[in-house]
Backbone:
């Protein structure tokens, strides 16, 4: 797939996914009253859900936290090495092509 094909076919969907994922999770958190203040430190912003679940032992807030917070982190951790490997392979191929072109040019000049 060429860069122009990628830009015209897939890139708009990536932008839409990025905007709507966070818009959906933020709206869902407000509608279902999942968000809460943190008592102290850098904890999770997902509250005990449903309210009073700690006493009953049926909290599902951790599942929301892992899906809403963990999914973007997982995608980032996977996409970083994949994209870096793609860049490395592209540059390696470009350097090899350039080197072959230079060798042919030098051979033709002699």
Residues:
């Amino acid at each position: 797939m060429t860069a122009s094909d990628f830009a015209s076919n897939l890139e708009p969907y990536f932008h839409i996914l990025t905007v709507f994922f966070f818009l959906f999770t933020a709206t869902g958190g407000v509608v279902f009253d999942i968000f809460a203040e943190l008592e102290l430190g850098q904890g999770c912003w997902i509250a005990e859900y449903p309210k009073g679940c700690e006493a009953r032992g049926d909290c599902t807030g951790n599942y929301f936290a892992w899906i809403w917070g963990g999914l973007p982190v997982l995608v980032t951790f996977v996409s970083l090495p994949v994209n870096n490997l793609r860049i490395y392979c592209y540059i390696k191929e470009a350097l090899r092509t350039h080197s072959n072109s230079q060798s042919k040019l030098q051979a033709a000049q002699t």
In short: The chain has a mean pLDDT of 82. The two ends are 38 Å apart (CA to CA). The chain is about 75% helix and 0% strand. The CA atoms of residues 37 and 43 lie 10 Å apart.
